[in-house]
Amino acid sequence: MPENYYIRYLPLVLHLVAALLIALPVLVLTTLIGRRKKFAQKMQAYECGITPTGDTRGRFSVKFYLVGMLFILFDVEAVFLYPWAIILKELKMFGFWEMLVYIGVVLVGFFYIVKKGAIDWGETARVSVENV
Amino acid sequence: MSLGLYLLVGFIKSFIIINVYLVVFAYTVWAERKVLGHIQNRWGPTKVGPFGLLQPIADGVKLLFKEDMTPPFVYQPIFTIAPVLALVMSLMSVAVIPIAPALHLFGYDIPMQVTDINIGLLFILGVTSIGVYGIALAGWSSNSKYAMLGGLRASAQMISYEASLGLSLIGVLIMSGSFSLQEIVHQQEGFFWGFIPNWNIFRGQFFGFFLYIIAAYAETNRVPFDLPEAESELGGGYHTEYSSMKWSMFFMAEYHNMITVACLATLLFLGGWSGPVIGPPILHTLLPLAWFCLKVAFFLFIYIWVRGTMPRFRYDQLMAFGWKVLLPLAILNVVVTAFFVAWFS
Question: What's the mean pLDDT in B151-156?
Fold first, then answer.
């Protein structure tokens, strides 16, 4: 084991190279061998055998963006909790109460978004929109 | 050990572990077909080799010789890169997974993992998150409606359950006080009350274990959370327009992630390679490895069993369950674990 601790990260780069050495030849091989036969119907987008209609780049539910935003909030919460979890044994009860306040604040926000219907999909979502 | 030798050993270990993963992947697929067959009162693969054991090889060769079609309407650079990204990231996460205690060889201590970094768990979480990009980009670059919807669904599902996954692991982190997987396993050696193994699952993380397993099933897009490839409504989901080996790269990535999840569950909750070790010195080296493999195989079997048993969630149920049930329970687990650890330390 080399003296410098950060040398330990170098094998990860080599591991990436090894993984690419598996993935890239497979990618090249599969484009080289295998038959090729093109005809018009095959070149269409798959829509269960029916001629495709409309554009893919249409609008989709705003809920997906909302889920993305909420994910960032709660993942950041988890990231804040990681270093705290590691040293909790030294912080003892002080660390517990401090983090309880933080989790409480996040939970208030969580309660708000649940009541707002931000994570309701389908039937329940439609009902809540009508109520608004 | 000199730097060159160290890197060489690391590269050899990478090469071996990646190939082991590919073999385990192939035989997980075989086991899945076999077990599912028996669950459904049929035989599964039997024709290729004894017990159909050569079936994965036959499948691989078949897929390699299939036509690799790139439809004209896709955005080609990303369409090509997406499966590679998914596969490479699924292979990256194995680099920090220790499969046995360090090996004494030629006077050196060789850890049985590619590299022993002290943030192993964070590395795995980070790398598996990058794997989501492979799926999201595949769906987007396909420029096909089913693929687009499948990709959107998959990414929304994976990020929803990722928050719960991250929170469910905090209980273990509080107990062990380290991100290093080696360290976490070492803390689970021995027994308490004389006979119960000192594993995290028996030391108050029973609840956290189930939260982790549920979130991990959703992360790997497996039944009952396999919405992204709901074949009855989306015709395959994000890989609708993929064929040949590009398709099978997504398939491989999914199974590699399954194996990684099983390894992680073993390391974090079931004591890794710890288990009864007896007999001559050679067994002292091999038995821990055998225990580790046995526990991982058990998890993979549960995966298949669940697939043979459970129906699929509906999308609104999936989202409601992830956000309204799993996330609060994960936070509760963190608070309760933190209270007891802080009180008794």
Answer: 88
Would you give the end-to-end CA distance of chain B in angstroms? 39
Percent of chain B with pLDDT over 90: 38
Asked if the C-beta of B183 comes within 8 angstroms of chain A's C-beta atoms, the answer is: no
Radius of gyration for chain B, computed over Cα atoms and rounded to the nearest angstrom: 21
Q: What's CA A66's distance to the chain center, in Å?
A: 13
Q: What is the pLDDT of residue A60?
A: 80
Nearest CA-CA partner of B211 in B151, B163, B158, B276: B163
Size of interface A-B (CB pairs under 8 A): 229
Q: Which of B2, B163, B246 sits opposite A78 (nearest CB)?
A: B163
Q: Where in chain B are the domains?
A: 3-344
Choose from B67, B96, B153 for mutation: most chain A CBs within 10 A. Answer: B67
Q: What are phi and psi of B44, to 5 degrees?
A: 75, -165
- Domain count for chain A, please give it: 1
A14 found inside a domain: no
Note whether A45 contacts B71, CB cutoff 8 Å.
yes
Range of the domain at A114: 62-131
Mean pLDDT, range A101-127, rounded to an integer: 82
Q: How many CA atoms lie within 13 A of B212 on its CB side?
A: 30
Chain A partners of B64 at a C-beta cutoff of 8 Å? 26, 29-30, 33-34
Which residues from chain B sit within 8 angstroms of residue A123, using beta carbons? 316
Task: Tokens 């804040």: give the residue.
Answer: A80
Q: Are B265 and B216 in contact (CB under 8 A)?
A: yes
Structure tokens at A118: 């931000």
In a domain, A3, yes or no: no
Interface with chain B: mutation pick from A7, A56, A62, highest number of B CBs within 10 Å: A56
pTM: 0.91
Task: Say if A17 falls within a structural domain.
Answer: no
How far is residue B334's CA from residue B318's CA, in Å, rounded to a whole number? 23
Q: Which of A15, A82, A95 sits opposite B170 (nearest CB)?
A: A82
Q: Is residue A52 in some structural domain? A: no
Residues of A in contact with B338 (CB under 8 A): 85, 88, 95-96, 99
pLDDT digits (tens, 9 = 90+) for A56-100: 787 888 888 888 888 888 888 888 899 999 999 888 899 999 999
Q: Is A127 on the interface with B (CB under 8 A)?
A: no
Model pLDDT for residues A80-89, shown as the tens digit of each residue: 899 999 999 8
Percent above pLDDT 90 for chain A: 27
Instruction: Please tell me the least confidently modeled range out of A122-126, B287-291, B327-331.
Output: A122-126
